[in-house]
Amino acid sequence: MTAKDYGVPKGLPKQTTSICPECRQLLTATLSERDGKVYIDKECPEHGSFSDVYWSDAELFLRAERYAYDGIGLINPSDKSSGGRNVNVVIGDKPFEMLTCTALANIDLTNRCNMRCPICFANANQSGYVYEPDYDTVVSMLKALRAEKPIKCTAVQFSGGEPTIYPRFVDIIKKAKELGFAQVQAATNGIVFAKDFDLLKRSQEAGLNTIYLSFDGVSDDIYLQARDRKMFDIKLKVLDNLRKLEKPPSVVLVPTIVKGLNDKQIGDIINFALKNSDVIRAVNFQPVAFTGRISREELSKGRFTLPDLIREEGEQTGYTTRDDWFPVPIVAPISKLASMLLGENKVTFTTHPHCGIATYLFQIGDGKVVPMTRFIDAEKISKGFNEIATETAAAMSKIEDRYVDGTVSDEFRAAHLEAYKSGLKVKEGYKILKLLNSCIIESELPGGMDKKKFTRSIRAVMSDKSKETLAAFSWKMVMLGGMHFQDNYNYDVERVRRCGVHYATPDLRVIPFCAYNGGPEYRAEVEKKFSVPLEEWKKRHGDEHC
What we know:
Number of helices: 19
Shape: globular
Radius of gyration: 24 Å
Number of strands: 21
Largest sheet: 13 strands, mixed
């Protein structure tokens, strides 16, 4: 993170940059509070004024801003047009510098799909062309991600279309692991993994860590409306097949939430995840983004924001309150300190504070479900890590400045600094342990737990032994998250600049998620540039492969 950590201007009202939903030209927009909600208002000289709910809870909006950090940017050496500078994303005709590293890279393996979903932002099977980079091209994209500076990309998600129908799907997973990706994921509807156990097994053996499984509800009436076919048995079959594996990939359920369709099944989805937490580790809710033109009345009725998710979850389950949810960058100070102490830049989640939210649920031995925030003061931890990191940075800067006059050799200076860092690690380690201990709310711990035992279990959650340790305490754990991708009505360039989910393209560019799928919509440009017309594809491969 930069010295100027708090890069997002805080408070309301304030101005940002948005786009016209009609012509997509850049506009100045105002974020302001009305009736307890935060609205984004903008006016296009040609198409008039537009207003939309940005966050439906102004108090939560302002609270989230307390965790706003700017990252150290992103340099993509493989993109020669950037000239070795921080990557820019061009919106309209203006470049904007990206401020966050690639926390998760998306690579679309194909735009072919074995479904035709009405709510798919990838628009698979409807474009008139087939986008499917060959194996060598995808490998080049992976290598480009691993060459990023100052932080190498460590997590990649293969998506589409439907990535599991890509001819060399298993080979690509294996290659990603060989190149050093710690997290290899696949975003899938589950049809192939439900029907082809051998492919699932080979994918796991090749190194697949996580399956992002689209999951819109627990009854087929939802799937018939959202996906135009029954799908619930498919989801169950995927879980059953995973249980047959010795070390199955973890599952993240990904419900696309559409107001009036499945927003009243949020609680049922969470309870389903808890019931199946032997394979399901998280639920990542994604409120639907609106594509194409929509009336103001339809926009008002259909808009579902992250605070709406928090409210619905609380009302439907009683598990959490609004105080149990935090924005993604609450964990940024932890990575900031780790980068200093380890002497290398670590992936830091400096995403915009209004992009995503999360909490952890524990189901303890007696069946009671409790959020982690009841046991741990998360805000105190975040603030404490930031204070330690700031003190560490000042101490390290002081020792570096001691020899700037050239009185000692560079080798001596480097050796002295390394020795100082070693001592600092021990010193800061004690500070961290003391901080963590002070943040545990012992009076709220379940029966039979004390601080020491709880600390061990939490540390295990972050390790490969999490399942075994939680099982020993008869606990189940599921992470809940929400990620609201933008559309042309609520588009905020400041969110795009701080995006941590990037697409890699065949010409080795990296593009923020919301810029790729909305706003200037790079997706259409990239796919047309690297695609084959549908009729030509059919001649080569036959209709059955489309």
